[in-house]
């Protein structure tokens, strides 16, 4: 019997590892669709940002209450992983609380900490469900934000409910285990005197008082399996979900933009064109990007700006996989606030959806498959793009340093420079700048006329 | 009693260079500061302050051109770089080191975006510059209008605040006035855009439930302020239009921080 459980456990473990590896490779391949860009510079600054923003959750504390609640789930997640180690070893070796005899004095303290965190996670998940469905926090409501309709809301709910189930399984497992230990049943009894009651689960023991020994063992086994299989299933599920942020959040912050928020990225391929047009000597970009290491000109750039995910940078694509769909960006966006179609969260979700559609294409038609869709047009519309004021509120609001504005700008560049599709009044502004050196139709020779009024009384 | 007649001068770089002279700072006026009737008054107020404290400055005058900010943000990178390269040629030709500008868009572009194209300058926004003058005691607000009992609220511009993390300088400048500073709910990093950035100023807004500037002005009026202080030409227009939209132009005024300082000094 025991050996059968062990085999089953190892099979589940290996299957999960195999499947997750497959998913990770698929996602990595999709992120690699993006254009290369060196984000390995300034390691010190990047590390510091990651420690503050990802590990320290700095931006989550912009709203202290939610910050604390999220921190409980986050700490619970990281610390309970230590406990998984014992569960996995128990599962493989067919042992029961393997570590207990070796670290007797600290063991109960450890489990108490896990229990407190598990209870905290449980409470926070219930509060988070209430925020969504009872307090109806605006940024999380599908009626107000079309990008949330359908799967995104289910995804969020599934995760919260799953976490509640996992935590209940963990706490009741400890409780039923304690009762079996008290009764001295089988190998459970062996730990009598070694392992005491635990901080939270001791209060759940009365629930099991009426159980027969057999029923109790059955419950204990079920809860144990539910907890560990649930965790394995969760790990697989995460690769399909906005919950991928629990893994990608860290590298995403590490590789995030370091320049001032107002600085829009330069296009060195255009610098060359402009230098030629103005009859200036062609220089290399500040980052040497015009000329590669061999001193050759790099291959011609395919497009100015971005039409599809392949034209974006890999960091834009990693951003999309990391997005938690929390909507802080959208709640801060002046265009969204005033009812325009633009929602920065939707920009990120569309980018991810586009990549997932491409992935599905690869899986059904082979790795060279290409459909005739593109991010611009089939997912994101011109109306959304044109509404952006480039105010960077979304960039500032994102707890994991995602930059929706960067994608918006690259799509705008494609529309304007490749498709000549700017709104008519923008075209007028462009030609004014070109002809009059100002966005308005004034003669450049009148530019200094204001000086005549300097001595007039106001 | 004879009233002292103040005369203000606006030297150009061309004149200075011709006489072999160099200014301490270049005042970058910007397109709005040069052409927009309302914003010209801000330019003039700032020039009067510069004259008053006796700083040796110059402007480019007709040699100045749009930095290219609205073109770049609307997606026309080619046009932006054409403007940038031409401006950099002029600035480098005059060997400019230090630039002051009242426009956060010009400020951001000159400071953050020109270096990669070969234009490296120390760029200062006029709020920082005025803050410096006040700290050094070169500007004392007492000779002109009194601000006692007036309520002023400051609207953060995106390209000054979030873009470049300048939140305190304009507030410090306003604190020099003897007024009540009241803050709106969305301020500093959480400030709400006026609705004009990213090229929006030059086109109709997309359909929605409200215009951004109206949303922002409602918030500003909610503070009970009689003066909305701004530090950006686009914010100036958007806030003024919003106040008109709410029919409050008789009781609520929109001023640039340099105008308030000039008023306080009687310039
Ligand atoms: S930068 Fe654009 S998308 Fe982001 S908050 Fe501002 S208007 Fe919205
Ligand atoms: S981009 Fe950032 S702020 Fe916006 S929904 Fe995604 S995680 Fe949240």
From TrEMBL, chain B:
Chain ranges of the Cysteine-rich domain: 26-111, 152-239
Keyword tags: 4Fe-4S, Iron, Iron-sulfur, Metal-binding, Oxidoreductase
Entry protein name: (Fe-S)-binding protein
Organism phylogeny: Bacteria, Pseudomonadati, Bacteroidota, Cytophagia, Cytophagales
């Amino acid at each position: 019997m025991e050996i059968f459980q062990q085999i089953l456990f190892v099979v589940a473990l290996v299957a999960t590892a195999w499947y997750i590896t497959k998913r990770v490779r698929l996602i990595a391949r999709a992120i690699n669709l993006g254009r290369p860009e060196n984000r390995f510079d300034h390691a010190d600054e990047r590390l510091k940002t990651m420690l503050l923003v990802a590990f320290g959750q700095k931006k989550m504390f912009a709203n202290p209450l939610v910050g604390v609640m999220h921190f409980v789930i986050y700490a619970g997640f990281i610390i309970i992983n230590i406990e998984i180690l014992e569960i996995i070893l128990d599962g493989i070796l067919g042992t029961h609380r393997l570590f207990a005899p070796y670290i007797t004095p600290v063991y109960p303290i450890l489990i108490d900490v896990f229990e407190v965190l598990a209870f905290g996670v449980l409470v926070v998940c219930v509060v988070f469900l209430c925020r969504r469905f009872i307090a109806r926090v605006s940024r999380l409501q599908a009626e107000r934000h079309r990008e949330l309709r359908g799967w995104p809301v289910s995804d969020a709910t599934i995760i919260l409910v799953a976490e509640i189930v996992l935590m209940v399984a963990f706490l009741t497992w400890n409780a039923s285990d304690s009762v079996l230990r008290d009764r001295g049943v089988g190998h459970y009894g062996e730990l009598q005197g070694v392992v005491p009651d635990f901080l939270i689960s001791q209060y759940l023991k009365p629930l099991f008082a009426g159980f027969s020994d057999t029923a109790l063992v059955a419950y204990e086994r079920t809860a144990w399996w539910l907890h560990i299989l649930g965790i394995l299933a969760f790990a697989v599920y995460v690769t399909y979900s906005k919950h991928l942020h629990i893994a990608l959040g860290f590298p995403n912050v590490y590789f995030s933009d370091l320049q001032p928020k107002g600085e829009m990225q330069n296009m060195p391929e255009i610098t060359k064109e402009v230098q030629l047009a103005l009859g200036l000597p062609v220089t290399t970009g500040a980052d040497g990007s015009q000329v590669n290491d061999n001193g050759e000109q790099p291959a011609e750039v395919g497009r100015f700006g971005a039409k599809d995910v392949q034209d974006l940078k890999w960091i834009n694509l990693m951003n999309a996989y990391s997005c938690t769909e929390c909507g802080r960006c959208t709640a801060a966006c002046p265009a969204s606030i005033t009812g325009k179609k633009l929602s920065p969260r939707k920009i990120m979700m569309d980018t991810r959806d586009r990549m997932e559609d491409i992935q599905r294409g690869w899986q059904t038609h082979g790795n060279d498959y290409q459909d005739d869709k593109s991010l611009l047009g089939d997912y994101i519309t011109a109306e959304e793009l044109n509404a952006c004021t480039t105010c960077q509120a979304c960039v500032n609001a994102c707890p994991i340093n995602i930059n929706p504005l960067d994608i918006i700008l690259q799509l705008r560049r494609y529309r304007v420079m490749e498709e000549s599709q700017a709104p008519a009044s923008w075209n007028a502004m462009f030609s004014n700048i070109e002809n009059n050196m100002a966005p308005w139709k004034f003669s450049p020779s009148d530019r200094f006329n204001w000086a005549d009024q300097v001595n007039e009384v106001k | 009693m004879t009233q002292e007649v103040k005369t203000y001068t606006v030297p150009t770089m061309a004149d200075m260079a011709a006489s072999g002279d160099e200014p301490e700072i270049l005042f970058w006026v910007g397109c709005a500061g040069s052409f927009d009737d309302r914003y010209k008054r801000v330019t003039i107020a700032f020039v009067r302050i510069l004259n008053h404290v006796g700083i040796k400055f110059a402007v480019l005058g007709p040699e100045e051109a749009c930095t290219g900010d609205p073109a770049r943000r609307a997606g026309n990178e080619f046009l932006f770089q054409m403007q940038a390269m031409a401006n950099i040629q002029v600035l480098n030709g005059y060997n400019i080191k230090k630039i002051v500008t009242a426009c956060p868009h010009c400020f951001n572009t000159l400071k953050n975006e020109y270096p990669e194209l070969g234009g490296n300058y120390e760029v200062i926004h006029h709020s920082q510059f005025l803050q410096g003058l006040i700290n050094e005691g070169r500007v004392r607000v007492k000779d002109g209008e009194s601000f006692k009992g007036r309520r002023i609220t400051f609207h953060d511009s995106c390209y000054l605040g979030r873009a470049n993390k300048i939140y305190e300088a304009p507030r410090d400048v306003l604190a020099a006035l003897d007024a009540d500073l009241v803050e709106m709910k969305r301020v500093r990093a959480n400030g709400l855009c006026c609705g004009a950035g990213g090229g929006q100023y030059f086109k109709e807004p997309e359909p929605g439930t409200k215009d951004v500037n109206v949303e922002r002005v409602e918030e500003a009026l909610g503070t009970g302020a009689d003066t909305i202080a701004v530090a950006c030409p686009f914010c100036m227009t958007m806030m003024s239009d919003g106040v008109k939209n709410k029919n409050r132009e008789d009781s609520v005024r929109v001023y640039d921080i340099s105008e308030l300082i000039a008023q306080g000094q009687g310039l």
